[in-house]
Design brief:
Helix content: over 70%
Organism: Drosophila melanogaster (Fruit fly)
Number of strands: 0
Oligomer: single chain
Protein name: IP17959p
Low-confidence stretches: 203-207
Strand content: under 5%
Structural class: mainly alpha
Radius of gyration: 33 Å
Shape: rod-shaped
InterPro entries: AH/BAR_dom_sf (IPR027267), BAR_dom (IPR004148)
Largest sheet: none
Pfam family, one: BAR
Distance between the termini: 61 Å
GO cellular component, one term: cytoplasm
Mean pLDDT: 85
Order of helices and strands: HHHHH
């Protein structure tokens, strides 16, 4: 029986693993303050801080707005799931519409010819209009406000975060390489001072 195994490039795998370990070591030493790191220029740092602030506040504004528009957290989660699977959200009656239906039904039971029944039906119809206005407001707010903000977070902000991650990886690789060169030069300096080479043999300047 022939089994097709995936074609792994061992050299690339080992190289990537070594680079990852080198970055982890470099980052750990930076956190401990035992090694030097290349600092970004002031303009880039200001842009990065602005990006972080923008992301934090945009996420908070979206969450708070959705909490106001749809107070029930279970309904918000349900709407989010339906949005992700690209299906239409379920039609729900608002509290105003529930009240309107109860008042209209009660007015019919009390009697449409009686003043109390007429009043209940009239107020219930007004509540229905208010409920429809609420639906329209929620839909318009989603289309014109929260959805563009979410699109911004899922688009531009994710791209910025990805590019910053790539830049930080390159920076760690650069600093790790610089520190290795620095250590190698230090060892060569110690070798020339002690008169012994790296393998433990006497060092001869004339050879």
């Amino acid at each position: 029986m022939n089994i097709n195994l995936p074609n792994f490039n061992v050299k690339n795998l080992v190289k990537e693993a070594g680079s990852t370990i080198s970055r982890v070591v470099q980052l750990t030493e930076e956190k401990l303050g035992t090694t030097e790191r290349t600092e970004y220029d002031l303009h880039f740092q200001n842009l990065a801080e602005r990006a972080d602030v923008t992301k934090t506040w945009t996420e908070k504004i979206v969450r708070d707005t959705e909490s106001v528009l749809i107070p029930n957290p279970q309904n918000r989660v349900e709407d989010f799931i339906f949005e992700k699977i690209e299906k239409s959200k379920p039609k729900r009656l608002s509290n105003l519409e529930h009240l309107a239906l109860d008042m209209i039904e009660a007015g019919g039971d009390f009697g449409q010819d009686l003043p109390y029944g007429q009043a209940l039906i009239k107020v219930g119809q007004a509540e229905q209009k208010l409920g429809q206005c609420e639906h329209d407001f929620i839909a318009t707010s989603g289309i014109c406000f929260t959805q563009p903000l979410r699109k911004f977070l899922d688009g531009e902000m994710k791209t910025i975060g990805k590019e910053r991650g790539i830049l930080e990886t390159k920076r760690l690789d650069l600093d790790a390489c610089k520190n290795r060169v620095k250590k190698a030069r230090s060892m060569l300096g110690q070798q020339s001072v002690s008169g012994w080479d790296l393998m433990g043999f006497p060092y001869c300047k004339g050879v």
